[in-house]
Every structure is written in C-alpha cells, then in structure tokens.
Amino acid sequence: MARTALQDVLLTLVVSALLIWIMPMLIGTYTLTVLVIYGMLGLSLGLIWGFGGILCFGQAAFFGLGAYTYAIAAINIGESTLPMLLAVLVPAIFAALLGAMMFYGRLTDVYLGVITLVVTLILFKFVNSTAGPQYVIGKARLGGFNGIPGFQTLNVPGDPGAYIWGDPYYYVCAVALVIVFLLVTWLLRSSFGRIALGIRENEVRMGLMGYDVAARKTVMFAIGAAIAGLAGALFANWGEIVTPSLFSLGQSAEIIIWCIVGGLGTRIGPIIGAAGLAYLKFLLGQQSLIDNTLITGLILVLFVLFLPKGLAPAIAALFRAVFGRTRRKPDARRMRRARHG
Amino acid sequence: MDLTFVIIVETLYAVASLVLISAGLAVVFGMMKVINLAHGEFMMMGGYVTITAVGLGVNVFVAMLVIAPLVVGLIGLVVERLVIRHLYGRLVDTMLATWGLSLVFIGLATMIFGNTTTGISTPITGFAVGNYQINGYNFFIIVVSIVLVIGIYAVLRGTRAGLIARGAMQRSDMAAALGYSPDRIYMATFFCGSALSGLAGAVLAPLVGLVPTSGGAYIAKAFITVIAGGPALIAGLVSSATSFGVVSQVFTFAISPVFGEVALLVLAVILLRAMPQGITGRLFKGKL
Amino acid sequence: MAETVLETQGLTMRFGGVTASDNVNFKLKARELRCLIGPNGAGKSTFFKCVTGLLTPTEGHVFMRGQEVTGWHPHQIASLGVGIKTQTPNVLDALSVRENIWLAARRFHPVSEARDRSDEMIDRLALGSIARSSLGQLAHGERQRVELGLVAVADPWLVLLDEPAAGMSAQDVERMTAIIHDLTKTAAVVIVEHDMQFIRSIADTVTVFHQGAVLMEDHVDRVMSDAQVRAVYLGKKT
Amino acid sequence: MSLNRRELLGGAAALTTAGLLPRVAFAADAIKLGSILDKSGPFDAYGKPMDMATRLAVAEINEAGGLLGREVEIFAYDTQSDMALYSQYGQQLTRQDKVDVVHGGILSASREAIRQTMRKSKTLYFYNVLYEGGVCDRNIFINGVTPAQQVEALVPYAMNNSGKKVYILAADYNYGQITARWIEKFVRDNGGEVVGTDFFPLDVSDFGSTIAKVQTAAPDLVIAPLVGGAHLSFFRQWAAAGMKDKIALASTTLGVGNEHKVLTPEEGNGIMCAYNYSQELDTPENAAFKERWAAMFDGDQSMHEIAVSHYHGLHTWAEGVRTAGTIDRDAVIEALETGISITGPGGKVTVDPKTHHAVLDVHLMEMRDQKMNVIETLPQRQPIDTQAVCDLSANPDDNTQYEIEI
Are A296 and A281 in contact (CB under 8 A)? Predict the structure, then answer.
C-alpha cells in the first residue's frame, strides 16, 4: 500500500466532493442517482471477487433481495429507516447462510459459480411466480412478474411525511457510496482485509497458518451481500417499483461485466465500470442503429481478450507513464490470480 | 395405465432433451475444460438455421440433422480461432469471453431476424395411447438422444480420433507428446461441440417458439447438468440428465412446471454440495 | 521425562483397496527432532497428511499434547500452535515476503507485535534484501526459506515439515539446517525427507516407513546400517 | 403537504437541468408528446408497431394542421424491455423534456413503473394496451380492452362452439391471474364448469406434461391467456400432440402481437379469440388505415391489436385537446371526461368518464390460415369490471389499481 490511510481518505473525500458537485451539471441527477447506485453494486462484487477471490454469478440475488426486503418492509412499516436496515441485514444473513454452506463444503471456482447462479435462478423463478393472491407478506403482495409498486420511499428518519426525493436523493446516494467506499478502504487496510487477500492468494497456506478460511470467506461474502442489499434498497427508492428482473441472470451478468471492464482488484474500477456502462446503455436507448446487447457483448469480449485487467489499472499505468512517476508495477500474476479465485 | 405410459414417455423425453441440450457443452468442457457460455446461443442459431433452410425449401430433416450442425459447427470454428484460442487454460476468462459472445450473437440475431417469435411446425404427427394423445415428436427427440450418446461412445471407443480425444481428456500434454498438435485437437473438439449444440437447437426448434434470447433458457440447465455430471463425459451426462429429468418431471406432474424447475435447481445445489466434483467425481470413477 | 506432543494410535488410511497407512503407532516428545524416511509410496506423506488434517484417517486416532485432533481441519490444528510446511512450496505468490510473514504472525499476535515479530524473523532468516519483493518473483530456495519463516514466526511447539530440502542448493540446505536446529530449541520437529545427505546432517532418531507401516525406529546411524532398511530402501539408492 | 414539497424539489431540479439544454428553446412552439415503448428486447414485437402507430397518428395530426395551430413533436425513448429504464426515461420525459402528454408502456409492470411519476409531475398519461383492468387514477386514460369486455364476449361464444367443461391455462402474472378469475366467473355464469386451472411463469416453454394433464381432465374447451414468446410453444406442442381437433382452443392474448402469423395454419386454425381489432376487419376506416400505414412504412403491414389501440389513444388525446382548446392538463382531462368519441380502424371508441377507460367494440374472431377472421361484432362494450370499483367523478383523488373481487 503506497499511500497512507490518511492520504487515501483525504484523496477520496476531495475527489468525490468534486465529482458530486460537478456531475449534476453534465448529467441529470435522476440518471446520475442510478449510476451511483450501480457503482455501489459494482463495488460489492468488486470487493468479494477482486479482493476475496469469490466468483459470484449471483450478485443480483442480493441486490434483488435488498430491494424486495425494502419494498415489503416499507409497505408494512410505513417509515423508511427500519426497512433500510433490514434491506442490508436480510441479504447479509442470506449470504452468510449460503456462504457457510458453500465454503465449508470447500466449493471453489466454477462450482461456486454454479451454486450462486442456481440460487439466483431459484429466487428469480420463485419471485416471478408469486402473482397469486396467496403470496402475501404482511400487507405486501409479492406481485409476481409485475413486482411491487407503491411503497413508502425514503424519508427523513422519524418523519414519514418528509420524503427525500429528487436532487436531495442524489446527494444521499452519492454520500452513501462515499461512505461505503471508505468502509471498504478501511476494511482492506485492516487485518481482516489483508488476511482476505492472503486467502485469495492461497487458501491452503492460510489454513495451515491457522486461519479459518471458510469462516472468513463467509464473512466477506456477507459483507459484499450487505453492500449489494443497500444498493438494492436505494434502487427500489429510485425506481419506486421492484420487479423480479432485479434477480435476473442478465442483471448478474451486467455486474460481472462492470467489474471486468472497470478492473478487478481495484476499488474504483468496478464503480467506474458500472457507472460508465450503465450510462452507455442509457445513451444507446436513444438510438436504434445498432443493437444494444451486441455492443455490451462486444465490449466484454474485447476487454477479456485485450485488456483483461480492466480500465482502472490501465488508466493508472497511463497516468504513471505520462507523469513519469516510477513505481513498482503490479505483478501480472496477482491480477490473474484474482480472477481465478 | 395410459396415464402411466404418458408419464413415462414425458419423463424419458425430459431426460433426453437434457442430454441433447447438454451434449455440446459437455464435449467442450470434458475435452478442453472450457465452459462455453455461448452454448445456448449456438442452439438458438441452430434453430434459426433450420427455420431459414426450411423456408428456402430444404427438407426439414436434412435441415435439422445436417445443415444446422454444419453451419453452427463452422461458426464455432470461427469463434475458436478468433477468441477461445487465446484463452486456453484460463477457465474463468473463457467463461466471461463466451458470455460476451453470447450477447453478441443475441444482438446479431435480433438485428437479422428481429425479436418476433418464429418457428416451424413439427414434422411428425401425434398419436393416441388409450384416451391420450401423445406428441410423436417426443419419440424423435428420445431417439436422437440415444443415437447421440451411442455415437459419442462409439467415436471415443472405436476410432483413432476418439483415442486421441480420450488421451487429451486425461492429460492435455499427452496428446502433444504423442505428436498431435493440441491446437488442432482443440479446433476439432470445438467444432464438434458447436455442431452438437447446433443440432440440439435445430431438433428442439419445432417444439418451441424461437426468439434471439431463446438460448438463455437452455444455458443454465445445460451448465448445471454438465457440472453436476462431473469429469466423465458420457456417464456424467447420462447420470445427471437422468437425475434432473426424473426429479423435475415428478414434481411437474405432482404439482406444477414451476415446481419441477425449482426441484431441478434445488437438487443441483444438493448434488454439488454433497459431491463438489460432480456425480462422476465420486461415483463411476474412471468411466467415459 | 518430556511431555508427549504428538501421538498416533492405530492410524490407518485406505484409498479404495489400497492401504496407504497401516496401523501406525507413533510418539514424539517435546523438542525432539524426528525424521521420517522410506521409499516412494511407503506412506510417509499419507501419514503426514493425516496428522496435519489434510486427510481424515479411515481408522485410528491422532493426539497432540494429549488432545484428540482426529478429523480436525488443518486450521484448527494449526491454531493449537502447530507449524506445517507442505511438500510443494505453499506461499502467497502475489504478496511480499514481509506481508507473507506478517500474516502468519498476525494469526497469534496483535497488529503491532506481529509487525515486530515479522521484522525480527526477516532478520533472522537474512531476507532483509528481498523483504519487499513478491514471492512469485523469488527463487525456489528463497521461497522455501520464506515458508519456513512463516512456520517459525508463529512460535510453534510442534513443527511438521514435508521435504523441506527438496530441490535446494547446498548453501540453501546449510541455512535450512541452521534454522531447523534453531526451531528445536522450542519445538518438536518432524521432517519427512528423501535426501539422505540432509538426514545424516540433521537427524537424531529416524522412523522408517515401509508399505504403509513403521518398519523400524532408531538412531540414524543404526538405521543406516540396518540390513533390512538397506534392503527396502537404501540398498537401491546407495 | 408532502406533495407540495416534492413539486418544489422536482421543479427546482428541472430548472437547473433545462438551462443546459439548448434544444428546449428550439421546440418551444411545438406541443411535446412523450413516447415510451420497448422498441428492442423481447417485447419489441409489441413495441415496434406501437411506435409506428405513434408516428402515423402524429403525422396525421400534423398534416391536418397540428393541434391548436401548433405542431406536435415526438420525444421517443426505447426502454429496451427493461423495467428500470421506464423509471429513468419517465423522469427524463417529465423533468427534462417537460412533455405535455406521455403515451406508452406495454406490460402492466412498465405502466406501474411510470404511473406515479406522471401523476406527481402532473403529466397527462395514456396507457393504450389490453390489460387486467382496475386502474383508477384521474391522470391516466386507458383504452385497451379489459377482461370483462373481452372475456364476457369470448366465453359464451367459445362454449357454444364446444361444450361446458373448461380448462384454463394462464400466464402466471397479474394479467393472467385476474383474467383467469374472470374466465371462471363467466364460465359459471354461462352454466359451465372449470375443471382445472394452471399458471405458467412467462419463461416456461415446455408444455408436454401440461398437455397430458389437460387430457386427464378431459375438458371440452381450453382457454389460454398465455403471454409472450415462450408461451407460444404451447400452441405448437398442442398441435404437435394432435390435440387441435380433439379439444377446442380459445385465447385472450394470442394474436395481439400478430402471433397468428408465426403459427402455421395447421397450428392456428380454429383458435377463437376476441379483440378490438383485426387486420381482417371489413370497414372503410380499417381499409384506409392499412393503406396509410403501408404508404408511410414502405408497404409494412405489422399493425396489431395493441398498435391500433395505441393509435386510438393518440387520436382520442388529440380530440381532447381540440375540445379543450388548450393543452393544459386539467382542461384536457375535463374535455375527455365529457365522453369524447373517435372512430378508428377498430370501430368507435368512447371515453368512459367515470373510469377513464374506454367503451369500445369487441369483435369475435377465429383464426384461419394465418388470419383472424371476424365472426361477429359486439358493439360498444362497457368496461364493467373497472366500473364496479372505480368512480373518478365521485373520488377524483383515487390512485389505486383495484383487484376486482369476483
């Protein structure tokens, strides 16, 4: 770690303050809000995949779970503070249980991918088939394919009438992202984060050192899910409707693509990847010349082939080259291993 | 009694279609340790090739059994040369690249064929069993799957190419040591795998409405079947397709198709948790 | 009489029809240094893996300081204060030497103490010049040395080493020998080894494995001169 | 109180962003019409013709001199069959483009995703698609067919042609669930019996077991409100099993997206349905409409039920603006609430003031050789399902989607 913790925090605060101030002049805050939320979602996978070595094909499951938890709790409670907390807790607990099952079973790599994918599919299929009136949680109808509209959106804690909406909501989301980013920074600098990095590198060795690898991976997985859950709750507030497509494989795929394009093993990469690609998708919606899916796919293929480390490390390298600062190049091996977890 | 027969046929059909949709993926995974996530789109393309060929006046069986596998196999060959070749040995990277390819194919198909559902009618008529009408085409699919499995077995056991392939499956460096270029083996394997995917898509096309995103419905199932099957190609494919097919049909008939699908997925989680290396990683060791 | 730190009773491991480890009864006292030798496939490594928790024995029991640890996970065994080095170098390639050793020290000590201890260990192993290099860039001997450092920095009372001298230069072996002697001041050490040269230079008591079972257990000189041992193992080698 | 606060915030946001957009000034004179449809992705079979209908209708309006002497300009967004993009573009239309009216939304989920946004920003909203009924909101006008209008006509007709025992196979979402309940009601009302009901999520494409199950129940008629590409497989597998000639088949959805042109004659022939529009409708309005459509889109003939519904909606709105003499939302709503009628390719369409739904003609049809032949026309059906729960003249502040108890 080249920078000290204090430098890191200061840099983060200054850059993010600038961005939060400047960006609304370029892009509408409503669109910006969702880019920020996707950034958080990207960060959640970037953390567990890039730093924890856990390849999760079902990050969307936690995103959807957070959004649905928020919607259901908000309908039943009518005030947004507790639902927000639940939306973080429920996915985290779910991930902890799922993670414990997988990691104590010593599942790795592709098998991990299959299980997370299958669990996402199960959730999707279940939620998608809850249109009947018998699927009710408290006062909330699950609604199946059509989802749940019309729930209480974010309010000033304690005052259900004071909605946080429009521009203020953008600032809430942006600040939430900065806080999550700083927490992730802190986590990675802590012993827990450094041990997690060690586990990513070599599980057997970390086990032989006496670390309970399965427990630590489970915790890491749950933290990632908690962040995804928070992003889900914010997304529910933004769209004012939750639908099963939040759980879909397509959504999971997008998160993975964000991480690859942005750069694994970096904190900022997945955020940039998420915001950039989501904005691209938004722009492409205003043209009909080339199919959108085609472009997304092409980007993914080209990145895997030609820039497998992603944008963030490439930009950093470019920056160093231009400004002539010599620093030890990140080891190629490190990046590749990160991917293979 | 008639209903029992119908249920048996439907179950056999479920198993057969799982074998069919997983075969291409299994061949590529078994030989090359590459998971081709564009597999579903290869099937989708097989379907479109068939429909296009039939539209041009080709006999439907020729279109399904010859043209579709050939065309999709060739597309596979191009994909292998352009993309997969650069990523051998990097399991996760190939998964991501083929995932990207699947999106590219969906996009291309959308631009060419549009999102409107298309299809051809089944070339075999239904017939009656007691009070029940059965889809005659189901038998065709069952037969194709059986022939396919026997065919793969015969090729692996009885031909020189099969011997090399088995060698490559065990130890990828062995074929090289024997003087065969692994590059060419991989090319051939990927061609065969893609052709099988194309065949599966073509054969299933008359039963479903085809849209560019049709592949998505297959890939998850095929992926699960192959991984749960484990390292042995044929034994793994057949054993996992049988377990999944039977379980999902039992739940489908007892409750509903949704429960059938969910039962399949839950079984997959249990299987992989209990046998992290797949069924043939624990049982049937050393079989093909 | 010193305390028994490691004991196995009737340890048996079967793979399918093959018995790789056959009713092994083994005892090790505190601060004892013991070498396990035997021809390829004699069951040394299986025994090693059963003791370290990498394998769960089919039958029998493993005790460490009187505590039954049969079927424990490696991390649980390591947490007792047991240092383990596997046959192939098992290090964290992308991390630096310092980070590697720090992680091992951190398991048993708070952050700042872990830092002091890892600095100390780097000095002791004369790794100062490469402390910032990542393990992936180091030579084989250096990696082996770092791995030994990982084991030593945790202050173990029992150290299990699988072929520590494999593939190392004479100079490296010499350094390794010194480190191991250092370790025996505080810990009992078990070494699984092929290299007779190395064993002669370091061993005191030697246990000979043959076909999964213990063939004999005695002082290194007597073992080397034993006709039966020579027949199964040494005779073919020297 | 909270509403005012929101308006204030929303207004402030629009001001800051609008200042940066030069094209707002350019279009200041035109009436701005927002269009939000899935022109790509799985639902584009519905969305593309709807988009064409939008352009055709607006071209017609402009050719006739525009509205109130002003040109109508389209602000169109492609939501790519992604529900999240509806929220996003909905906000874009109301806050940034500040359109005067929004036409669009296809699936009920997409409508619900933007309905509240439109209501909060006081942007008049038209949803012009056949749906499950029950939406009660003064800001929205709906001229799609609701289950009561359609099913009430279809069920007795289909039962007369087959028998009294009915099996229902429905899409497992809001629309299918509610429609299935209406079918049950009308089957009972007509002295029949529902022998089984099954629901299928939209991605189910294998119906083999279902076909066996249906045969066990031995109904005289199967009614299938199935939706989308995957569900189309049912009709092919049904024909492949040779069931076509054994049990009669009716649907409340097949053909809405021109699916009958995808099915072969052997698969489609004899399937009964009931809609507001068929290309085979033999009226002068329809003939002229098809001609204008073909002229504008190079001979294309992809218009279908919901595209025509959309076309009706656009002209209804235009008529409302003409009557009101202004584009002010409240004035236009009041004008529409006088019970404005237009006559389009599907027949006469009248706004029902109490529910903001439409009174329209329902045509009974039968598929024959990839055509939907009109058998009988039932004129001016009331949306009785929504009328049972919704009265906007009595409760103008209502803002719910009712699930009608049957």
Answer: yes
- DSSP character string of A303-322: HHHH-TT-HHHHHHHHHHHH
Average pLDDT over residues A54-74: 94
For chains A and B, CB pairs below 8 A equal: 125
Is pLDDT larger for residue A245 or for residue A249? A245
Which chain A residues are Cβ-neighbours of D117 within 8 angstroms? 240
Interface residue B124 vs chain D (CB under 8 A): yes
Closest approach of D273 to chain B, Cα-based (Å): 19
Of C179 and D11, the one with more pLDDT: C179
Structure pTM? 0.86
Contact partners, residue B168, CB within 8 Å, separation at least 6: B31, B174, B175, B182, B185, B189
Interchain proximity C94–A194, CB inside 8 Å: no
Q: Which residue of C has its CA nearest to A194?
A: C103
Give domain status of residue A309, yes or no.
no
User: Do the Cβ atoms of A210 and C79 come within 8 Å?
Assistant: yes
Residue B238 lies in a domain: yes
Domains in chain A, number: 1
Which segments of A163-248 does DSSP mark as H helices, in order? 167-189, 191-201, 203-208, 213-239
Cβ–Cβ below 8 Å for A125 and B227:
no
Mean pLDDT value of segment A263-270: 92
Q: What pLDDT is recorded for position B173?
A: 66
Cα separation, B275 vs B271, in Å, equals 6
**Is the residue at A137 inside a domain?**
yes
- The closest alpha carbon to A281, from A41, A63, A34, A43, belongs to A34
pLDDT category of residue A334 using cuts at 50, 70 and 90: very low
Beta-strand relationship, D272-275 and D358-368: antiparallel
Record: contact C52-A194, CB cut-off 8 A: no
Q: Distance, in angstroms, between B248 CA and closest chain D CA? A: 11
D264 neighbourhood in chain B, CB within 8 Å = 120-121
Instruction: Give yes or no for a contact between A227 and A44, defined as CB atoms under 8 angstroms apart.
Output: yes
Q: Which residues of A touch B228 (CB under 8 A)?
A: 114
- The span from the CA of A284 to the CA of D399, in Å, is 34
CATH superfamily of C4-234: P-loop containing nucleotide triphosphate hydrolases (3.40.50.300)
**Radius of gyration of chain D measured on its C-alpha atoms:** 21
The answer as to whether B287 is a domain residue is no
Task: For chain A, state the CA radius of gyration.
Answer: 20
CA B168 to chain D, closest CA, distance in angstroms equals: 37
Chosen for mutation from D199, D236, D249 (greatest number of chain B CBs closer than 10 Å) is D236
Q: For residue D232, list chain B residues with Cβ-Cβ distance below 8 A.
A: 117, 119, 208-209
Nearest 5 degrees, angle CA B117-CA B120-CA B124?
145
Q: Spell out the domain ranges in chain C.
A: 4-234
Q: The tokens of B122 are what?
A: 């089944």
D201 interaction partners in chain B (CB closer than 8 Å): 258
Q: ipTM of the assembly? A: 0.83
Of C94, C107, C111, the CB nearest to A209: C107
Q: D403 — contact with chain A (CB < 8 Å)?
A: yes
Measured between beta carbons, which residues in chain B are less than 8 angstroms from residue A109? 91-92
pLDDT at D27: 44
Cβ atoms of C158 and C2 closer than 8 Å? no
Phi, psi of A309 (to 5 degrees): -85, -10
Tokens of B50: 């068939």
**Whole-angstrom distance, CA of residue D404 vs CA of residue D384:** 11
Domain count, chain B: 1
Which string of DSSP letters, residue by residue, matches B84-120? GGGGTT-HHHHHHHHHHHHHHHHHHHHHHH-SS-B--
Contact A300 B97 (CB under 8 A): yes
